[in-house]
Amino acid sequence: MKKTTVLLLAGGLTAVSACKSTQNDTIATGMTTETTATAAATAEEVQLDYPDTKKVDQIDDYFGTKVADPYRWQENHDEQLDEWIAQQNEVTQAYLGDIDFRDEIKNRLTEIWNYPKYGAPFKEGGKYYFFKNDGLQNQSVLYVQESLEAEPKVFFDPNKLSADGTVALTALSFSKDGKYLAYGTSSGGSDWNTYHVMETATGKKLDDQLEWVKFSSPSWSGNGFFYSRYDAPTEGNKLANMNEYHKVYYHKIGTPQSQDQLVYEDKKNALRNFYGQTTDDERFLILNVSEGASGANALYYKDLKDPKSTIKPIVTNFESEYNVVDNFGDKLLVNTNKNAPRYRLVMIDPKKPQEANWKVIVPESENVLQGVSAVGGRIIATYMKDATSQIVVFDQSGKQLNTVALPTLGTVSGFNGKQSDKEVFFTFTSFTYPPTIYRYDVPNNKVTQFRKTEVNVNTDAFETKQVFYTSKDGTKVPMFIVHKKGLQLDGTNPTYLYAYGGFNISMTPSFSIANMLWLENGGVYAMPNLRGGGEYGEDWHKAGMTPNKQNVFDDFIAAAEYLIDQKYTSSEKLAVAGGSNGGLLVGAFMTQRPELAKVAIPAVGVMDMLRFHKFTIGWAWVPEYGSSADEAQFKNLYTFSPLHNIKEGVKYPATLVKTADHDDRVVPAHSFKFISELQDKGATGNPYLIRVDVRAGHGAGKPTSLVIQEYADTYAFIYKNMGVNPYQNNQ
Q1: Are 509 and 498 in contact (CB under 8 A)?
Q2: What one-character DSSP code corresponds to residue 231?
Q3: Which one of 59, 359, 649, 682 is most buried, counting C-beta atoms within 10 A?
Q4: Which residue intervals define the domain Peptidase S9 prolyl oligopeptidase catalytic in the entry (predicted)?
Q5: Taking Cα atoms as reference points, which of 674, 713, 709, 682 lies closest to residue 92?
Q6: Half-sphere exposure for 55 (CA within 13 Å, toward CB)
Q7: In the 8-state DSSP scheme, what is residue 418?
């Protein structure tokens, strides 16, 4: 398939197929716990003067159930809301500014963050390209070299797109001959993209400028490319208006957007999205059609070599997932979970698309077939076994040839190449294994290390284990636990429990330099693979979808109980965190079991489960969650909606809600309403704060400097409320 790099730098609820989030020798100071009396005093002495938050008399009737929505006004972004955000940020920053070790955390993060970060090379137009960040650059720079031995040169520096780093590079795609580069930019973290075109030989930016692009990538065909967009939104709240009537266009280089050819639209189904891709040889245009973020899609195609060809269906229902890998001649190689929850690889003749005519190339196995590449006459399959990667290579008929050896249990990404390539690169990482790039010689099945990442941390000081704990209904759930070697299981270790649990997204081992600060100070990092994710295929996903969403929260609660029961930590030393769908997870956890954790960090979360579908792309999440417009689904949503389950007088964990004013994926009103309700009803003793990034979005494209500051604020808040000073021995 024609490869397009889409730079979604932070995970989250995507439009059509889903929400992740994001050192010399270990510091010898250790993490020092204050006395119980001091820790208790730190928590109980919290006296915060929260801003006055207006309430309105808004009552909604859901099938006879009256539901108050006193903060409905926060859904509209105006001067009144801006003033409230400023007041909340002032309270939050004053609290964080009084934490005397916050600057030490930030300084240490800055120190360990400052190391070269490389992306795997890829080949276009006979040249090699790769991304590199020198260490603290806000965005990675794209380099080019004539050969792997040649001196790299800067090709495109996205840091020059804006002075403050808030205009980000979001997508790029080279024409087949390598003559042109189409790339996308977004401002302030918004999902709205603008597409531009550059001549690769001269670096000259052409006049082409395409607006209102969303949930798309440029897919080349001849002297132009296909892309998807919405009509320009109405004036007003463009960051919250519902996105409807996605359309596919073809743009010819050198022409204005007004002359772009409308390729496909559906006037009868406003809530369908169309994602176009061309095959590597530009023979076929493939349209992935979705009605929501469940992962299931329909599949259409157009034969671009036939001028009379029209767009025709291959699959018209939305019962399963179909991902076209590439074409072999006039047939399409498709990775699907149709009648195969852990996926299988089939060959489909688009002219005879009935399932009876499919040819099975690689049948379903006990492991999840996570990704497939067609490179160098081979089929390279990435499998997932208990949330870790395995690589198996097949010939084009499906005969297994060999496996690719990996250094340890971890996660592989890459293998992006063309059928004509004889080499391809991939990146391997794990919790304590910094991303390392390998070159794979396809014909000879030879793996060589291409580039190793060097970090200023003694990663050998830590160990990773995988455990299987029992959830409420008896289901066995895997969890990774990372900590210093020789950790004492005495129930006193500060522990950071992070999860996601939804949208068929798999949480696999990966390296985070920010996690290293937590670990080097004696902390425990735990990541369970909750139901709702994709770790064990579609059955595991469906076990956490509506009406089974409570299973996800039960799995997370059981993970916390396991860590406490096994003496890794205690409820007074446990922080729970998650972003986007994971923010919903944390919100449900803290409202259902407020006594189980000391700190809660819900980031860009879906907190109002009764109205999420009314904003931007929220309607696409209905297959995952359900809708309050359906009586049975409303009753289910109402039982766990974080906003609607905050109770008067309950002492909730110390809470730092995180969001951004330009988030048009999960609109910030979710977080605004949640913190307003929490500040109003929650019992005193713990702080209930919100941290609102300005000119930032759901996470993608955030400058490095702001990311470091956010981690420093988050860790400082957690340590403070656990009664822990990680640098006490230095004072």
Answers
A1: no
A2: P
A3: 682
A4: 509-723
A5: 713
A6: 9
A7: -
Per the structure block, which two tokens stand in for 164? 């403050």
At 405, list the tokens: 């050896």
**482 contacts: CB under 8 Å, gap ≥ 6:** 431, 432, 462, 463, 464, 515, 519, 524, 525, 526
Distance CA 604, CA 21 (A): 10
Kindly state the tokens that stand for 255: 């022409």
- Catalytic annotation on 580? yes
How many C-beta atoms lie closer than 10 Å to residue 643's C-beta? 25
Task: List residues bridging with 183 in a β-sheet.
Answer: 172, 196
* Among candidate residues 159, 165, 161, the one with its CA nearest the CA of residue 133: 159
Beta strands (DSSP E) in 598-707 are: 599-603, 654-660, 688-693
- Position with higher pLDDT, 262 vs 293: 262
And the tokens for 214? 């969303």
**Two tokens at 70?**
């006193």
Beta strands per DSSP E along 146-291:
153-156, 167-174, 180-187, 193-199, 205-213, 219-220, 224-229, 247-252, 261-264, 273-278, 284-290
C-alpha 264: how far from its chain's center? 28
Encoded amino acid at 51, one letter: P
User: In 614-702, which ranges are continuous DSSP H helix?
Assistant: 622-625, 631-640, 669-681
Q: Which two tokens stand for residue 232?
A: 């320009």
In three-state secondary structure terms, 667 is coil
Report residue 498 CA to chain centroid gap.
13
Beta carbons of 103 and 715 less than 8 angstroms apart: no
CB-based burial of residue 51 (10 Å sphere; 0-12 exposed, 13-18 middle, 19+ buried)?
middle
- Which residue in 580, 628, 641, 676 is the catalytic one? 580
What distance in Å separates the CA atoms of residue 571 and residue 589, rounded to the nearest whole number? 13
613 contacts 621 by C-beta, under 8 angstroms: yes
d(CA 53, CA 61): 24
* Number of neighbours of residue 558 by Cβ within 10 angstroms: 21
10 Å CB burial of residue 164 (0-12, 13-18, 19+) is: exposed
pLDDT for position 26:
23
CA dist 43 and 40 (Å) reads 5
Omega cis (within 30) before 547 = yes
708 closest CA partner among 90, 141, 105: 105
Nearest CA to 7 out of 243, 159, 126, 170 is that of 170
Work out whether the CA dihedral 490, 492, 495, 497 comes out positive or negative. Answer: positive
Per-residue pLDDT reduced to its tens digit, 45-86: 567 999 999 999 999 999 999 999 999 999 998 899 999 999
b (16+ CB within 10 A) / e for 429-438: bbbbbbbbbb
Answer for the pair 228, 199: CB distance below 8 angstroms, yes or no: no
Assess whether pLDDT exceeds 50 at residue 34: no
pLDDT tens digits, one per residue of 554-588: 999 999 999 999 999 999 999 999 999 999 999 99
State residue 497 phi and psi, 5-degree precision.
-105, 115
Distance of alpha carbon 446 from alpha carbon 380, whole angstroms: 13
Please return the burial class of 201, using the count of CB atoms within 10 Å of its CB with bins 0-12, 13-18 and 19+.
exposed
The tokens describing 282, both together, are 């530009």
- Say how far residue 269 (Cα) sits from the centre of its chain: 27
Contact 582/527 with Cβ under 8 angstroms?
no
Q: In whole angstroms, how large is the CA radius of gyration of the chain? A: 25
Give the C-alpha separation, 381 to 403, whole Å: 9
CB 425 within 8 A of CB 442: no
DSSP helix/strand/coil, 242: coil
pTM: 0.87
CA–CA gap between residue 229 and residue 224 (Å, rounded) = 16
698 counts as catalytic: yes
